[in-house]
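S.,

Sequence below, as promised.
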Amino acid sequence: MGTMEKVEAKLTTLCYIEKNDSYLMLHRNKKKKDLSADMWIGVGGHFEKWESPSECLLREVKEETGLTLTSYKLRGIVTFLYSEETEAEGIGNRRDIQNPRDIGDVSEFEYMFLYTADVFTGSIRECDEGELEFIRKDKLKTLYFWTGDEIFLKLIENDYPFFDLKLTYKGKTLRRAILDGKELELFDILDENYEPTGIVRERSIVHERGDWHRTVHIWVVRVAEGKMEVLLQKRAANKDSFPGCYDISSAGHIQAGDDYETSALRELFEELGIKAAAEELELVGTHKTECHSRFYGKPFINREYSNVYIYDATGKNLQWKLQKEEVETVMWIEYEAGTKELEEGTLENCILMDEWSMIGEWLKQHKQYCEQTNAMYIQEV
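The prediction came back faster than expected:
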């Protein structure tokens, strides 16, 4: 990931001071050279020689705000990596990057000690770095700030234990997020034309906000004994949405910077163990999904733009290798029988009928092919 060894790590503190369900935010709009120019962040700054994290925190808060903290808590450590974005790597060309998670030469590298505070004395004074204002927590998402900040603010609000978060940026675009050593899923946010905006957010936050993002849907079909059948997967019981429901053969989100076809091939292999070639996928259309649900007591807003593919498994001796974290089991179902079950509600599922009908149209166009195909006996699930 670039040449980090040439960049000296900086030590900083960042604090979110709470009052009446609001955080004290600094709008950094006064300094000419500022990596966070015009963004909203908490308060804090760089260590001075021989300072401990707490000493730095107390001094920086006093200097920037005039407040004296009397109760505060260290919530986690954030490793921040940053490199400049070239013109060729702008919004419109991000998907052309060979490795979207590679940021090249690092120009900023810091370890940030992240605090919250809820008891203080004194009154707020003018800050020479920007304007200070208490912002309600439910209004924070309307502000302009580093999208990785959304991740640690959510961890704080959920009272997550002490955490180690690594955030990697190329320009203002979040490229990687690693929480306690585990890679988090990041999605490209789409505009009104369903094209990437250059904004990247973490998966759970996307579904909280209801941002449009990209997915792939792959329907596995076959001719068996003269009938057209569709493969359905049963979602794992621990899924964050629609657990235990029958669904599309294989589907998944497109990771930030990736493309549709590559993602479709990856999902087929990861979820079902099908190693397909690009020419074996047939794009049959696109689908827009917008739904509001609630899972595990929390709202779940899903707005996704999908490429819909067909994978014809006729004559292929598929050997299932199911991804246990995603798929509980799979089953073949004859299309007309499946239509009846979906319409009558006898099959617990999360399949959208308009997309099911799209697959039906494809099958209808291939009816002659189906009728002319000899009966084939393929290994049952």
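The radius of gyration is 25 Å.

Coffee later?
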